[in-house]
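Render this sequence as a predicted structure.
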Amino acid sequence: MRYLYLLHADPASPPPSPPLLKELHAMALRERQAGRMIFDGGLTPIQAAAKLELKGRQLKMLDGPFTESKEVVVGFAIFEFATRDEALKSAHDFMEVHRLHGNGSGLTCEMREIFSPPA
């Protein structure tokens, strides 16, 4: 089963520290070599974002930053695991790296199974 991890943080959070980036890079390398991590990435600050919003039949484009945002997606990863328990353990390990090496700012990892329609 494939899982998407979405990382949410306060838009005013500082960028990741060099020690955290070093640990995350090492973890990503291990996960890729083990065949569990398919893809990952961090996102640019919200100031560079754009939203396309569809309401009714009206399409509107908005440029960031978005003042109403209480949290933003700051990164993501896609993994392949045999079980949900494996995915949860991996998400826990990922957050533990942030706890040990991060700046202490709030971070949430939302784990979602990726739905694939039957072939």
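Summary. DSSP finds two helices and six strands in the chain. Residues 84-101 form the longest helix (18 residues).
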